[in-house]
Amino acid sequence: MKKALASPLVTSKRLFTVSLVVSLAGFIGCISAADTSPKSLYESHKVSVAPVIDGIANEDDWDKGSWRAIDQVLIGKDLQPEDFSGRMKVLWGEERLYLLAEIVDDVMSDVYADPLSHYWDDECLEIFVDEDASGGNHQFTHNAFAYHVGLDNQVVDVGPAKTPLLYNHHVTSRWTRQQGKTVWEASIAVYSDNYVDGDATQQPVKLQEGKALGFMLAYCDNDGGKHREHFIGTENIVPVNGDRNLGWIDASVFGLLNLVR
């Protein structure tokens, strides 16, 4: 079945901005990590009221915190500002994280109808969350999550069985276009590394002031071909054997998200 898109203009060649909501907040500085990657330190402020996930970021709470650029090219070369530029911010509540991002992209493309096929090659946001900020390998574990949020708002990650699964119950997202911008809002339920696929009794962790999580945001940029042209993130990942695309394997390259008032 072909995935339904929110707008028939998704594949049109025009400039617009993607604004995204998923709860986390502003960038403050950088700290050194044992893995030599320059980790970003984020402060996420608490919401007074949970934002409505409708693709319209009109809640006063979004004035809290500062923007963080999505500007680290992890895959691809010669990325021009008119092709892509982005920024994001994050908030939190006891039940969820909330993320808001703005992205300028001249083309958004959804090539593959099956949400579990080549999901990394379709245009999507990729939200990385490590509940206890423990770092380490998570390629085929739930030590951390790498949520691929597609234009159809479906959410994919790889499970311990080494196959992609839908995690739509973990992330809720919507996007709209407003005055030349695409506003994309999302909320994220945070699960621990004890999460078991298929167990409907599991509950996300309760978030509280003082908690630290591993976090990174990235964007898969596809201009209409079979493969993404660029992959751009918030973290300046030190390459290993020339490879900077390490977030889907190693949570140690994530930034650190501190929950504050």
Please report the distance between the alpha carbons of the first and last residues: 44 Å
CATH topology: Immunoglobulin-like
Alpha-beta classification: mainly beta
By CATH, the architecture is named: Sandwich
Q: Any low-confidence stretches, pLDDT <50, length ≥5?
A: 1-35
Number of domains: 1
Which percent band covers the strand fraction? 35-45%
Helix content: under 10%
Count of DSSP-assigned helices: 0
Main beta sheet: strand number and arrangement? Answer: 16 strands, mixed
CATH class: Mainly Beta
- How would you state the average pLDDT, rounded? 86
Note the run of SSEs as H and E.
Answer: EEEEEEEEEEEEEEEE
Shape descriptor reads globular
Total beta strand runs: 16
Q: Radius of gyration in whole Å, from Cα?
A: 17 Å
What does this 3D model show about the protein?
The protein is mostly beta strands and 261 residues long. It has strands at 16-21, 26-31, 39-46, 68-70, 72-75, 84-92, 97-105, 124-130, 145-150, 155-158, 164-166, 171-178, 181-188, 212-221, 230-233, 255-260. It has one domain: Immunoglobulin-like (Sandwich), CATH 2.60.40. It is built from no helices and 16 strands. The chain has a 16-stranded mixed sheet that branches. Strand 14 and strand 15 form a beta hairpin. Residues 1-35 have low confidence and may be disordered.
